[in-house]
Amino acid sequence: MAKANIIEILNATDAELIEISKKGLLSLTLDEMKRIQKYFLSAGRNPTDLELEMIAQTWSEHCFHKTFKSRIQFTEIIDSNSPVMEEIPSLFSLIKQATEKVRKNWCISVFKDNAGIIQFDEDYCICFKVETHNHPSALEPYGGAGTGIGGVIRDVLGAGLGAKPILNTDVFCFAPLDTRHEELQEGIFHPRRLFKAVVSGVRDYGNRMGIPTANGAILFDPGYLYNILVYCGTVGIMPRWAVNKKVKPGDLVVVIGGRTGRDGIHGATFSSASLEKDIPTSVVQIGNPIVEKKVLDALMTARDEKLYSAITDCGAGGLSSAVGELAQHCGAVVHLDKVPLKYQDLKPWEIWVSESQERMVLSVPPEKFNRLKEILESENVEYACIGKFNSTGKIKIFHEKDIVGELDLKWLFQKSELPVLKALYEKRETVNIIPENINLEETLLQLLSDSNIASKEIVVRQYDHEVQGHTIIKPFGGIDGCSASDAVVLAPIYGNDRGIVVSCGINPWYGMLDPYLMAGNCIDEALRNIVACGGNPDRTAILDNFCWGKIDDPFELGKLTRCVKGCHDYAIQYKVPFISGKDSLNNYFTKVDGSVVSIPGTLLISAISVIDDVRKSITSDFKEASNLIYILGETSNELGGSRFFNVFNLEGGRCPAPHPEISLMIMRKLYRAIKNNLVMACHDCSEGGVAIAIAEMIIGSGYGAEIYLEQMPATTAEPVSLLFSESQGRFIVEVDESCVEKFEKLFKGLPCKQIGRVIPDFRLKVNDRDKTLLDVNGELLKQKWCGAISW
Amino acid sequence: MVKVIILRTGGTNCDLETEWACQVAGASTSRIHISQITTGRVKILDFDILIIPGGFSYGDDLGAGKVLANEIMLKCWEQIEKFREKQRPIIGICNGFQVLVKAKMLPFWGKHTASLVWNESGRFEDRWVNLRVEKSTSPFFNNMPEIIRFPVAHAEGKFVLKSHSLLKKIEKNQQVILRYVNPSGETQGYPYNPNGSIAGIAGVCDEKGLVIGMMPHPERALLRIHLPDWTRLKGQEEFSYGYRFFKNVIEYCS
Questions:
Q1: CB contact under 8 A, A469 and B226
Q2: B3-253 CATH
Q3: CA A250 to CA A388: how far, in whole Å?
């Protein structure tokens, strides 16, 4: 039987320490290796391979978030004559601070557990977590994406004493599907292959789990050629009493679900390293959704019978991370030979850090174990009692009779001295250009079929978006189901009209101009999507997910720092708390010639709102001819980062800037207007601006619209800007004539103007004073928008 | 009170909303794992209606519904046969329909005459379909409008028969309960027929009309606000087509 190997480090030189870390794929720095050396010097022995693996996993960027916890010396050069220097205690503290300042009493658990938890009603809480699975999905897209969704579902199963997953969300970033094969580097899959495999992976896992996948986005930009992004989120619901967990010394360590194999070894350490060719695919986990579904079924019964005192998922770092985390404040003894294996001959350290999927670890009071066994057996779920929690403050790991590891938990989890990081941000000077002599009709049609704007129906219909029977506003509504919704609305309890609204905001193109504004714009967009469906901006929580490039480059860290500062400042101004977040750093590719390509820094803001009555929610398709069309919010000449600029291959320009104060006022009033049945349809203006927003409202309605641009509240009179600028905080609203007075009164003093009418003809007609700028048939709009993305 | 057993196993995932639909329609319900049946702890015959709901039983790993169909045929066939002899309804929805067909319960009891195969599009699709209610031997679609709407959500839902004469036979026997149609009620190609089923067949029953199976999900069309375009509709009624279906089934047994 394989035993643990002893690794000689006590007398190792610095160079040898680095070599040990590198050879073992541990991703530990010299400072960290020296800390380990010191620990074992005082213990008077060399570490085992298992111990080194456990330390490497616990301290990995993936599990410890070193970058987000480090002090940062930040130099910001906005005006080249006067650089501003400041020291930031840590990026994570900035985010947390914002939540503390916003202070909402319905936030139940933030940044502590596996997922953020907010109050739903007297009896229930809602939790939400979004994760990324970028590296595995780039190497093995089908399996990587599937285990991405599988992993975040387990996060929710392991939040508190376990929540029932009710919704999955997904956001993907790929290079354009028409990328030429000659542009690919060795070891890189074509974006179309990645696109199809990632969608299939999420589809097959999510559908089999019986969880609706009903919100998300798909983005295309050449910046994601080498590193794709795969964000997966899960929303869960749990009884209020199940929010807290606490391991009790004397409880049994019980692992349930999948067996342990050699798949996903070093996932935690690898996920924070650069991609290059020739990475072993054994780092990618292999998923089996039905095993996880059985775990879910069994857990919900066991939870309600209160058969365990704590639970966590086996994610990155496997048992090492899961048991380590649970034992952190007490201690545990573990017997690795009791872990059910997929096949024999695994080394003890492999069992300990393997990231085999579909496993959960429970802390079970001994007297409850028999009943738990009954439930697990009746659901055909495998389980094993692999140890016991105690109060020694140590984790002691056996394999048969041999001790293969023993570590002090306080030392292992103690906050280490992290180095101070340097970050530098220099504002790019850009000229604000407005192209002339544009054919507006051609441009509109080109934008409608731009892959970033066009309908993603071909993907969305592959997800079961209404299993469980809670989905009230579905991803697609309108006539023939071809009108895309801004957000999804669920009524998660049968027979109860209380609901949640879930949306997202993401736009890397703004980030290329200014990551600070990107943060504000993403928050604004996520909130707009919530409010457009009837969500309450004052009852909305948000999540941050940062995907960034090579982070030891001070300029990349500078952009990230500026983005986090934006999150902090704008969250406070919009009064929305962050409840959970995650960072995925070092999304870069090292080419054969040694050069490095980082992804565009990408922030995903996911938003969730609780509403009293799902029956008040609305959709974006126009409802009736002769209704009036209003615009809320002011339009400026902000074409920087717009899809319009992209179509014309223009760089630079003025990036849209959010106006939190006015935006929030508009959103609060709009929420009231919708609640009081004053609004027939509503859609926010995002990529492609007003023109695209109105076209989309036409496509699923069978009606048309006639618009008068000169009526728009704006700081510009340029038709191109009025049509395609992506100024933030704007909505297009359809109002019945009988409600006009009440509606206008509500928005008195705010930028709110009637700009046209719904017309019986299926067409979009846009006038500027006495000139008709656009007159396009609805069928053509529909055809361009619906048919652009093929499978 | 009419008692419904909702039979589930690993990978079943529409059991909760099916249970809710039955309860709203006035029945008492039990969601029972098949292990409880095969170990003899629960008896199917103690119930009035058997429903096999949607999902991916055993991951659909050997073909949709195949493993659960085998389990039923090998481990609880006797109970199932008695259940049918006592003229109690057996209903398969989506994966449940796939199970009934593969367990040789539909369209002809004990005979392997049909199958549900991969959608012609080659992918899983979730979309709402128009369904024409056919004149059939099944009493469960009485008092329904001529055209109703349910969603489908499946990858393997294309209904095929062993021979063309079988199609004539089930049509003549009035065993076709639902057909995919366009909004004006005619059978048509994709996307109105979402999977390429022959003659647009979306659901069938046995000769007596008490064993029925369909790919569309009535339990997801229980309320008006389940309809994908309810925000466009003028009416204010609470329930939708799915409710009438469950109500019919339960009233038949009371």
A1: yes
A2: 3.40.50.880
A3: 6
CA dist., res. A106 & res. B75, Å (int): 51
* Position A455, amino acid: S
Structural Rg of chain A based on CA atoms: 27
Which structure tokens are listed for B254?
């009371």
Q: Is the Cβ pair A469, B56 closer than 8 Å?
A: no
Question: What is the 8-class DSSP label of residue B138?
Answer: -
Q: 0.80 exceeded by the pTM? A: yes
Q: Which 3 state secondary structure label does DSSP give A353?
A: helix
Where among A45, A69, A93 does a domain terminate? A69
Instruction: Reply yes or no on whether A190 is catalytic.
Output: no
CA–centroid distance for A281 within its chain: 24
Query: Tens of pLDDT along A663-672?
Result: 999 999 999 9
Residues 6 or more apart whose CB falls under 8 angstroms from that of A158 comprise A114, A311, A312, A313, A360
What are the phi and psi torsion angles at B80 (to 5°)? -65, -45
- Chain A interface residues facing chain B, Cβ-Cβ under 8 Å? 203, 207-210, 288-290, 293-294, 297, 378-380, 461-469, 471-474, 476-479, 481, 491, 494-495, 614-615, 617-619, 621, 623, 791
Q: What residues of B act catalytically?
A: 94, 217, 219
Closest-CA residue of chain A to B234: A623
Indicate whether A693 belongs to any domain.
Answer: yes
| Structure tokens given for A162 | 């376990």
What interface predicted TM-score (ipTM) does this complex get? 0.96
- Domains in chain B: boundaries: 3-253
What pLDDT score does A270 carry?
A: 62
Number of domains comprising chain A: 2
> Quick one: pLDDT at residue A61?
81
Residue A732: give its domain's CATH number.
3.90.650.10
Q: Give the CATH number of the domain where residue A48 resides.
A: 1.10.8
